[in-house]
Every structure is written in structure tokens, then in C-alpha cells.
Amino acid sequence: MNQKEKLLTIGQFAAMHGIHKKTLMWYDEIGLFTPAAIHPENGYRFYDYHQSPVLETILLLRELGVSIAEIQAFMKNRSAAGMKALLAEKITALDHSILHLQAVRKNLCIYHQNMETLLTMDLSAIDIIEKEERCLVTVDIDKDTSFYEEVEMITAETEKYKLGRLHDALYGSMISVSSLQNGNFDDYSKLFIEIPFLKQKDGLHIQPAGKYLRAFHKGDWDTIPLRYQAILAYAKKHKLKLSGFSYEMGLNENVIDRIEDYIVQIEIPVR
After folding, report:
1. pTM surpassing 0.85?
2. Residue among 172, 177, 191 at smallest CA distance from 110
């Protein structure tokens, strides 16, 4: 069998690598990957089986998001050291992507659970639940903090922790139990963001693990003091000692159009 008989047509070579033959034609046109031979009469492209490792390298780099320009530069000066450096860079980027996807999955599971809660829970009920420890990024607010200032502070924190969007994390507000017990139901002191998969806790607010009183409020914020009065009465009746902060988080913002339908989950540590 002569060398010509060992060559593969562009269709055969493309099929072997799971790509369209137009991809090979384009790679040839831009000088990235050229055929082993071109028929002098009809211009048909032919490829040698031994070109497969080179093409697979290109396809791998494309799959990793390496630009054509970067691949062209690498292919002109291919070396083990260059390949090692390029792959190390892309592995780091891939690790970041995996962490992001894990965070997205975690939040989707929480959103899914929230929808399950909305569909199955008696939202007028007050109950006791167990919670795991959470590490929260917080920003301080008070009655004089404007809505626009709150947005700016939260946006700054999402950028600081390299979140793509605020909704890549869980967020809410905090009011101290002492404020609630003193009847200051609008004395919110912090906004929180739960950053997924934080590796360090220094400087963060630790929401403790343990038992929590859980309740829900539906409707405008103006009526939430009535819900807190009911919560305080429930705690007194059942001899529950509330401590720390009340953590509020919206459950259904993405499925409602009216503020009257807004549901807030309230969780307060109990001892």
C-alpha cells in the first residue's frame, strides 16, 4: 500500500474526530491545521492518520476556551513547557468554573426547596427547625441608609467576592432580637450575602448552627411588625429564649408580580 492509499478524505478524518468537515476547511484557510495532501486536479483535501494528535490538541484547547489566536501562537512554537504552562492556566480557570457551577447548583437546590416550602407549608405556622452554621458577608445599615446606598454596598460586596451577579448568592436582611423585643421593628442593622464555598471565615458574620424558630410573612413590609409580635408571643408562650439576630430572606421574588404576594422567611436562633 503506497502513502497515498493511507490518506483519509476530509469527511473520514472529520468523522474520526467528531467534527464537521467545514471545521477542517476553516482551520486550513486560516493556516492553523493543514491537510497532508491536496489533490492537484480537484483540490480535495486528504489527511494522514498521524496528524490526529495535533488536531486533538487543537480541539482540546478550543474546548477549554483558548482563542484561535492563542492556539496559533502556541502551534508555531509547540513545546512541552509551553503546553504545560497553557494547560496549567486553563486548569485554574476550569477549577473556577467548577466552583461557580457548584455554587449555582447549591443555590438551585435551595430555590427548589423554597418552592417546595411554598407549595406544602402552612405559611401561618411557626415551628422549630435545625440549621447548620453559615458564613455570611454583611454590610451595616441603619434607618438612614437609603435604598440606593444599600444597592451600592451589596454590589461592591458581590464584586469583591467575584460573584457574576447578586443572584449567584443568597441574600437577605438582619434585625437584632433586642430591637424586636423593644418594639423597634424597623431597626434593621445588616444586609447579608451567603457566599457559596468560602474557604476562610475571618471577618465574616457566623450564623450559628442549632435550633431556630421559623415563621413566614406574606405581604407588604408595612405589616411585618404584626408578624413579629406573633412570633414574640409564640416564644413567650413556649418559653423559648430568642438570641442574636432575626434572619430574613425572600422566598418567591422570582415567581410573583405583586408585593402583596411577597413571602419572607424569618429564622431566629432559640436557646
Report:
1. no
2. 172
